[in-house]
Structure formats: C-alpha cells, structure tokens
Amino acid sequence: MAPHLTDWRGLYHGAAPCLLRPASTEELAGAVRLCAAAGVPMVPQGGNTGMVGGAVPDESGRQVLVSLARMNRLRDLDPVDMTMTVEAGMIVRTAQEHAEAAGCLFPLSFGGEGSATVGGILSTNAGGNTTVRYGNARELCLGLEVVLPDGAVIHALRRLRKDNTGYALRQLFIGAEGTLGFVTAAVLRLVPRCVSEEVALCAVADEDAALALFRRLRGRDETAVRAFEYLAGPAMDLVLRHGLGASLPLARPAAHYVLVELATSRPDAGLRGLLEAVLEEALAAGEVEDAVLAESEAQRAAIWALREGLPEAQTRAGASVKSDVSVPISRVPEMLRRGRAAVLALMPEARVIAFGHMGDGNIHMNVQQPEGMARADFLARGYGLMEAVNAVVRAMDGSFSAEHGVGRLKTGMLRDWRGGAELATMRRIKAALDPGELMNPGKVLPPEDPA
What we know:
The protein has helices at residues 25-38, 92-101, 118-123, 131-134, 170-173, 207-221, 233-242, 271-284, 297-308, 310-316, 332-346, 375-380, 382-394, 411-417, 421-433, and strands at residues 19-20, 42-45, 64-67, 74-78, 83-87, 104-105, 141-147, 153-156, 182-189, 191-192, 196-204, 225-232, 256-264, 288-293, 320-321, 324-326, 351-357, 362-368. The protein is α+β, with helices and mostly antiparallel strands. Strands 11, 12, 13, 14, 15, 16, 17 and 18 form an 8-stranded antiparallel sheet that branches. The protein has a 5-stranded antiparallel sheet with strand order 4-5-9-7-8. Strands 1-3-2 form a 3-stranded parallel sheet, covered by helices on one side.
C-alpha cells in the first residue's frame, strides 16, 4: 500500500486500514454502500499524480483508500459521433491511443498523461498544453457515470452535444476532486486527427514580446494554434542542467523562450509557411531574437522534451513551491514581472522557475529550493512564497489554482478567495449530496469556522 499513501510530491504521508480495488461500477457502488452504512470515509485515487495532495488519505488511519485502476475498459468508440466512452481508471495516454487507432484525437495533453487517469483529470478538471485550442477536461466531457455517497449510481453516459433537460449534473462532479461522488466512466469528446504539425522554439526579447508573438499567430489563424508555452530563462537552465540529455537547439541561451505548436486536420493548410511568415514579422519587430523550427518528428519531440522535462528537473534539483495561477491573458507579462519581484523580495536567493500556458493565461510561478538551504527550512516558508505570488494575482482578478485543483494544500486559500455566498453555496451542495462528509473529507472545502 505504501505507494498509495504518499502523494507524488512527497508533501503528505497518510494511513489507511485498507485499499479497495473494485473492477466494476457495481462493485464500487456496493463498497460505497457498506462504507456509508458504517460511517467510514473514503478517498478516491487514480494515477496519484496530483500536485495538491487531493488523492491521499489523512494520517488518522480511518479513511479507506479506493483505487479505480482496475476499472480501465474502453466501453465504446464512435468515429462518426466523435465520442469515446471509457472507464475512470484508464490511463490518459491509453485513451489517446484508442482514439488514434480510430483515426481520431483525444486532445487533452500534459506531462503526466502517461500515468494520470481519466477519472483523475475529470475530478480535477485538468488542463495542459492544448487548453488554448481545445479547453480543459470539462470542455471535453459530454456525459458521466458517478457513484454517489450513498452508493446510488447516476447513469448519464449520454453522447449528445445538445441536452437541455434540467441541471447539468455532470458539471458538479467535474472539478469536485471526489468530494461529491466517484466518477466511474465518462463520454469524452474527440476531434479529427491532425495531419499537419509545426513546432518552433523561439528566444524572445521579454515577456511582452512573448505575448505579442501569440497575438500575431492568433490573428493569422486562431484555429491553428494548438500550444503556446512560455519558459523563463531560469526554467530552461534548470531543465538543461537536470534533464535527461536535454540540449538547447538555439545558438545561445536567452532570458525568455516560447514553444509554439501549430496543428491542423487540413492537408493543404500551409502551416510551415504561416509559421515562417509570422516569425519573420516578429524578428523584424524585435520581438523574436532567434528561432528553430523542427524538421523531423525526432526534433519535434526534442523541443517538447525541454518543456515536458521541467517537473522532473525540478524534482532532481530539490524541493519546490508550486503556484499554479491564472490571470487574463493580457496581464500575463505584468504578472510574471510582479510575481518574480514579490518572490525575490521575500527570498532574494530564490530561483523563480516560471513557465506554462501563456496562451490561456495559466503560468506556473514555481520557486526552487536555493542551493545551500535545507529542504525543511525552504518548505517551511512555502505558504509565504505562494501568498506573495497570490497577492499579485489577486490584484489582477486572477485565480490561485488554474488547473491543479485545491486538494488538501490550498483549502485555506479557498476560504480567502471564494468566501461569502460563493463558499456557502459550495457547502450547501456538499451537505446535500454528502451529509456524512464521507467523500474525500478534508479536501477542497476548508473546515467550518468555529462558532
């Protein structure tokens, strides 16, 4: 059970009397009914790749851990309807492979897709590299099957694009992190497979130049932009130093980088010419200082490895404090500058590792453990560092969690940011569906204020 009792980042170490591994919705529903009757709390777990401690039990030893790993079957795939019905324990990459075999694409893509599960990405409303084009998990789900806290099952695996019949119940469970019920299966939306792709890595003059390049590409053909990723110089330095065989394909290091991916299902779209034309304009305007375009699939993968290798590089480099924030796209450059300054004012020796999805306003303002500082001393200041970034983000009408969720790590932030009527409404929904507070207790919602 040991691997199931610790989160991916090693922040939480829980205990549980047992690990349940149901193989079907019926088995899970029966187990939930037994736990509900005995008043035993339950914690769902998919790939256990979360960043906020949402999938591990607490230290009490009372919470039963429920793994959906055995519920991993493909129930249906229809290339005409462009839908795929899969069980919650299916690995995201496996879902992608099923779609590809049918000539389609399941477009959600992120670094942990080789171990994260479909149930996990829906429970956290995961985003990723292609959100700018296809949206988060919420936008890619048409129907759900859910086991409720009393063991009843909602059978709503409808593959309809239009269904205006009362409350959209699936939206309650997407992003709820297992606190309202256990997602057991989902109807996922597919898109046509891309037949033409172009990838470029660019050194840009500054944060404003990065945004200017995005606007140029979006203005030329918004439907072609599949990913637009920003990497600050220290982030690239970290992955070059600690990544597995990573190398910079540009002539010299830069202070700011952008990774661009264009893709289309149209064979005659001329993406290469479009990308070259936009880069020439940006070079002439002084926004882009250097750029390299992938000439093969191997080069494309090598460029993406620089971005995807960052989480592992951070782990190799020591502890890190992760701020997963979002602001309006127009304010991303300002947030990057002010957020960096706020962290360095608090910890001058800190290494600010800023990177992420500039095309949808989501940046990971991470802080790496300074060389020479003890891990425990650094992590003890973690909340202070996150709050320094959050203060900047809040002033810009942003969010303290863009795609990682709230989990256990950020429940206190939810009270500060979503208090009043908004938090009270969330509590009423929780009380209505889970009056015994047995579903993933201690996650998402903060404890009630003492009377």
